[in-house]
Each structure stands twice: as structure tokens, then as C-alpha cells.
Task: structure prediction
Amino acid sequence: MRTDSEHTIYLKDYTPSPYTIVAVDLDFRITAEGTRVRALLTVEPREGTEPGTPLVLDGNELTLTSVAIDGAPLMVSSYAADADSLTIVEPPLRRFVLETEVSLKPETNTRLMGLYRSSGTWCTQCEPEGFRRITYYLDRPDNLAVFRVTMTAPRDIAPVLLANGNKVAAGDAGDGMHYAVWEDPHLKPAYLFALVAGDLGSITDNFTTASGRKVDLAIYCEHGKEDQCHWAMDSLKRSMSWDERRFGREYDLDIFNIVAVSDFNFGAMENKGLNIFNDKLVFAKPDTATDGDYENIERVIAHEYFHNWTGNRITCRDWFQLCLKEGLTVYRDQEFTSDERSRAVKRISDVQTLRSAQFPEDGGPLAHPARPDQYREINNFYTATVYEKGAEIVRMLATLLGEAGFRKGMDLYFERHDGRATTIEAFLAVFAEANQIDLGQFQTWYLQAGTPKLTVSDSYDAAAQTYRLKLEQKTEPTPGQPTKQALVMPIKFGLIGPNGSPMGWSHVSGGDVRDDMIVLSGDSAEIVFTGVANRPVPSLLRGFSAPVNMTTTLTQDDRLFLARHDSDPFGRWQALQDVSMALAVGAVNGTPWAEDAVTALRQAMADTLANDNLDDAFKALALVLPGEALIARTIGKDIDPAKIHDVRDQLNRAVFGPLTSQVTAAYIKLTSDLPYAPDAASSGRRALRNRLLGLLVASGASEGPKLAAQQYADASNMTDRFAALAVSGAAWTGEAPVLLADFRTRFGGDPLVLDKWLSVSASAQDDGVLERVRAILADPNFPKNNPNRLRALVGAFAMNNPTQFARPDGAGFRFVADFVADVDTRNPQVAARVLTGFRIWPMLEPVRRAAAKSALTTLQSKGGLSRNTADILTRTLAG
Ligand code: ARG
Ligand code: ZN
Result:
């Protein structure tokens, strides 16, 4: 076996291919025994290609059965084929048709890349390099071609035959077989190819675009689940209409199909006209899906739909440019959710995601730039940095340019690059041109890894009536990038006067200050505001206007003041978090909190709860202490997760314990018997009520565990039932085992609900959890090839169980490492993803650090790992 773990691909080596495939005609003959694929590829040499330049096509695990050019079979001396490539030694220097035939075994494809079977349905996943597992091809995103697809399959097991574009023919093929022909008129890279063949139910609808084109919409799923697809359909129509209103983008085919499958390596895929989804991001009904599930479905349906313009019509030149489509499309789906729901709440939860998923990546051994410049395995770069930091970079661009300037740039982007494969440079160039500005320094955000530290101190001179802000930025080295440059940071801000209202100034000097925004572009700046009548409290980084770690010299009193008076909801939320974080970090580091400091925080929390001007959903986010993982990373070194767990537990008791009667009263008041609706206001009310239940349990209120059990039993929807289960499980209350057993019996037959049970089971932080998780995994009925089940159980254990994953005896680490080794033989992507849970290891205290390292080195010494897993392992260990 070839070991290609040393094979690194560099951005600087990018060269266009000497040949282009301009048209593809595929013929699939699908049977339960195997699939045969015949490909007619129309190939053209690029201008300037020298005679004798070989044509090298990508393949992966393919078996070639015939090869011909323009109808004439090739002699064995004129080509070389193995499972992973096909070379035509001396192709004609003119347009020609290369004809190949390969045979595939989708039934044994457990990697879930290329053509595979999920619960009997044939489906594909090609991004980024899955198409080469279907046929030999120039499997690179800059090769754009038109596709025609003929599929022949048994009518009884595959009555539904779908591919990209429009269906142009269908009929009987004899012997119980039937066929369909699909044509996609739009140029596309192979990673957007898709087909589906199976016995599926569907719901249909339609959408009329702004220019009057009627589009037929359908969502396909396992029979019997049709009634769970309506929310996804509703989300799709709202997405289509939003993209017209907000970005002037219409859909461009007569058909838009979505297919839900149960075995899928990630969330969903934007194949042209035929999106394929992990079914957990399609199915929803009130008694099995939570509000969070509804919101995720809406978001991902929107995300994949928005890719039609940002990703499909304009695609990436090479995979280094992945965030060109992903960062931009995440930004677009974030804006969609903000417009459909609450902008403030969405911003806060996006920042929580960024801090819990991207900051740890950026601050650990797997740190990489949003646009990496090298990779060994591209699948390992579908990361929070590419997606979430990528979206933050686009958001900063919008902040710097303003809404109109940003839209001008986007319009020019669509106009100039439609139908092409392009780069980050080209993306930035349209904004620079449309706004007549230089974005040279701004580009560093894409090139430099690491979360910048922004340090701000202030001082007030009463006699001179001047106020000074001193800002400094610094980015620590990351793997491969020892020195860092200063970044351009838009820092939205406001000054707040003693009475809580905004404060002005007569003159400002010493920095780039534009109305409500400071733009820091050097290492530091000192900004002087004159004509300031009183000492203001500054509200800094409003709306989290740059993805940085900010520390300030503000006092706890200043922060509590902001928590009450900041007009920016994000700022109020952040202020409460900062107050809590200071107490938690102090206590972990050996300085117990002072009683009056806790009293002040408690009062601020109580006032937040009582404030009628705040949304329920906002309160739900505010009335919570920073999570254990965030506290750990704020401390940053020699982490003892057990100690952090205990401190947070005590702080919960100290802050919220004395509020039991207020919290209980508010909880009761929010009880409602209205029928379930997934809208923002109703879900906000449930979020707050469930947060209050969480507080009662976490703060040790004697009634808490009983109340949770009661809510579990009485719940009329999954949101409330699952919340009760989750808080009981997290605290491992006396009732938790009974509730878990009941949940398992009630819902064990629904795999998506079973995942919730698996996650709660794996997230309990009691000492018995590892044995329970082992037992679940060892059950012969556990579906050990389904990515959702595996991630729900072992992914949750490695990512959401800081104390038990990082047990000092190393048993948690060894369990996960053994799991990775086993799953890696079947599905390397799932294995590699779970392994990233180890990225915390360099920050742990010495005993746990050594235990983690030993589990990792043992894994490495086993050898035979996939390229995916070997790449993550090597980089993790090097950190
Ligand atoms: N393009 C898809 C999306 O963002 C995700 C593809 C993920 N691919 C992967 N290899 N992880 O919606
Ligand atoms: Zn995407």
C-alpha cells in the first residue's frame, strides 16, 4: 500500500491543467451487485500545451475496464492506469473524446465519499475529491464542464432517479430496469456533481422568482418521513426570497431538489440543483426536534441554497480558496438568520460558536490561516477557521465598507466572476475597486493564523477634560508562522456617560476614528478625545466587530455598568460574561471571590431577568456563566479540568442559589400551553424557561432535580423534554438515570432522537460515564458505521466532557484513541474529526498532558492510519 502521508500540496505550486474537460457524458448502470460507469469526456488541450504532454486524470480505488479515444480502443502502451490515476501518454493536440469504463462497489463504500449506499439509496458525495472515486477525471475545481447523466437502475428498488439540472428523458429499459437522463446546462466543477437512485417519498412545492420563472421544488426522503420535511421546505422558500431581496440573486434552473440521507459525513452539500443533506438537517416535528434543530435546519437549508451563487456559479480556483465560498456563504446564512429572527441573539450565539470552536483551533496545534497555503489532506481543512473565521472576515469587510459599499462590491463580484473559478485576491479586488480603497493589509486576515489579542487601557483627565484610549494588538506565533503582522481591526465603540446615555466629544486625535468605529491598523494607537465632561465608560468591540480576544483595564464596576447601560446588546451580554469570568479565573488561580463581588453579579443577573425591555432569548443567553472550556482557555496553561468544573459549580451556587425564588417564579410565569411553534418569540420563551430550569439545577436549589423530572414528564414538545433531560444529565442528578432510561425506551426507535440520548449519556461528568459509553459502543446493535451515531456518542465525549475525557488516569484519552484507530479503517473522515478533540492537550497540567501524549504516541506507533488521521495526528503531536 502506498503511504502518501508525506505528500504535501502547496498553493505556490498552483498551475492550470494542460488539458480541460469541457463536456461530460456519464452513463451509470446501477444494480444491487455493483455499478458500471461509462464516461465520455470531451477534452481540449489548453493553448500553449506542448505536443507529447501527458493527460493525467485523478482516480481513487477505481477498476478500469476499457479506455478509448474517439471510439478507438487504446493500445496498452499508450496509457497507464492504476486505481488512483489514468495517464494518457500522448493525447491528440486537438479536441477529442476520451471514453472510459470503470466498475464500482457502492455497497462496500464505508468512507461515504464518491458513490455509496445509505439505507438502500444510492447517493454521492463529491466535495472535495470524491468524483475521482466515480470515474477518472480532472478532479480539481477549476475544471468547469457541462454534464449529461444517464442512469439505468432496477425500477423496484430505485423508482426515483435524480441528478443535477433538468430531466430530459426517462423510460423503460427492459428486464425490470428503467432509466432517466439529466442535463445540467451550467458549467460546473466535478465536486458539484450528484446523483441519487432509490425508493424515496417526497413533498413538492414551487417558487416563482422575482423575474417570474416558476421553479419546482421537491424534498425527497425515506418513506413515512414526508410529514417531517415541511419546515425544510418553508426554510427553502424563505431563503430563495431573501437572496433576491438582499443580494439581487435569483435561482437559475427550473428544478431544485433536496434529498435527505441517513449516512452522511457532515451537514449537507450544495450540488447544483440537487442538494444532498444529512437527514438530521431536514427532519423536524415538534415532538422529536428541538428549537435548536429547527433553527439549524433553517440555517443549513439557507446555506446550501446560497451556495448556488457563492460557490456554484462562482467557484474556487483550487482548494486553498475554500473560504472564498464557505466564509462568504456562512456570512450570508448568518445574515439570513439575523433578518428572519433576532439580530442581537444571532450575533451572540455566533460569537459563542466562534469562541468555542474556532478560537481553540486557532490557539492550538491545528491552527491554520483561513486560506491555508499547504495541506496534506484537504478534507481536514473544512474547519471552523475556514467557515467561521472566514465569515468573520467577510463581516469585517462589510463593517469597514458599510452596507452600501459592501453591496457594491458584491454586485461587482457577481458581475465579473460569474461562471468562473476564482481566488481570495480576486474577491478582495472587487471590493477595493468598487470602493476605491486599498485592501492590501486587510488580506492578512486570510493569510495569518492565530487569534489576535487586543489590549485596551484608558485614562481620564478631569482638569483637561480629555479621555485617552490606548490600544495594542499582538498575535502569538502559530505552527509554521513564527512572526505576525498587524491586522486592520474595525473596533465599533461608544462612550457612555455617568447617567447611562451616550457621550460625545468635541475633538479626537491620534488614531483612525470614524463616527462609531476605531480602525486599528498598526501595532498600537493612542486616541485622545477632548471636550469630554466626565469620565466615560467605553463600550468596545460592539457587536464583536473583529474576531479578537480583547482584554481591557475596566473594573468589575465598569463592566456591571455596561451590563446595565450599554445600548449594544452584545456589549451588555459580554459585560456579564466578563464579570463572571474574572471571578471564575481568580478562584481557579487561587484568589477566592469576595462576597460583595458575587452579590454585585447576582444583582446584575436578577436585574437582567426582571428587565421587561430585554428579549427572552437574550436573557437566556445572558443568565449563564461562561462554560468550562472557555474558562480553561482563558486560563490558558496547566489546565486542571476537574478544578475548573468545581469552581464553576460553586460559582453557580453562589450567584444563583440565593435567587431561587425569583428564578422559580419566572420559570412558572413562562409556562405556557400554547401549541408548539418554531418562531423566534416562542422559541425564545422556551429557551429562557429552560435556562431557568438549568439554573435551578446548577445552583443546587433543592427543588431543581424534581422540577426537571416533572418538566421531562409533562413536556408536550422535544425542546422542553430534551432540555429537562440535558440539565439532569449534565448535573447527573439522582433522577438522571431514570430519565435517560425512559428517553431511550420512548425514542430509541428514532435514530435522530437516539443521537440526543447518546450525547447526553456521553456528556455526564460523573466517574461512571466512561464505562457507560464503552457499553453503549460495545452493544452489537450499535450502528457503528453511521457518522451521526458515532459523533453523537464518542464525538460528544471527546468534545463536551472536559473532565472525563481528560481523566488524570488517561482512560478517557485511551478510549478515544482506540476508537479513532478502529473507525479509521472504515471512515477516515469521522476518525480524523473525532481525533481533533485532543487539540487541548498542550494546555493541560503535566499529569494529564503526559497521559494525552502517551495515548497519541501509542496511536501513532500502531501505524497504518489513513492520510486524514495521520495528518491530524502528526500536527496535533507537534503542538
Ligand atoms: N460544501 C459543504 C457545505 O459547506 C460541505 C462539504 C464538506 N466536505 C468535507 N469534506 N468536509 O455545505
Ligand atoms: Zn458551505
In short: The radius of gyration is 28 Å. Residues 15 and 318 are 10 Å apart (CA to CA). The pocket of zinc ion (ligand 2) is lined by residues 303, 307, 326, 329 (CB under 6 Å).
